[in-house]
Design a protein that fits this description.
mainly alpha; 4 helices; elongated
Length: 87
């Protein structure tokens, strides 16, 4: 049983690492105000984080990685709303 708990913690940790890598892939766009394509890594990294979250039985990690997987669409929606109100 101790081994199972340690394995779940490992999967949760890996899921959180995938979430943080998803955030880090967006940072160059915001820091340098230039459209780097690193954000496309969220379509690869964060689904892996979802799988790790499922294996670790952590709903929180699954939700975080799902949000990061669809972050491009979320940012486009929010940007369009802001643009509509500014002009």
């Amino acid at each position: 049983m101790n081994e199972a708990i340690r394995q779940r913690k490992t999967y949760v940790s890996l899921s959180l690492v995938c979430f943080l890598l998803g955030i880090l892939s967006w940072l160059p766009n915001f820091l340098f105000q230039y459209g780097f394509a690193y954000w496309m890594l969220t379509f690869i990294i964060n689904p892996i984080g979802i799988v790790f979250g499922v294996f670790g039985k952590s709903k929180f990690c699954v939700i975080l990685n799902v949000i990061m997987t669809f972050s491009f669409f979320i940012f486009m929606f929010v940007g369009s709303i802001i643009e509509a109100f500014v002009h």
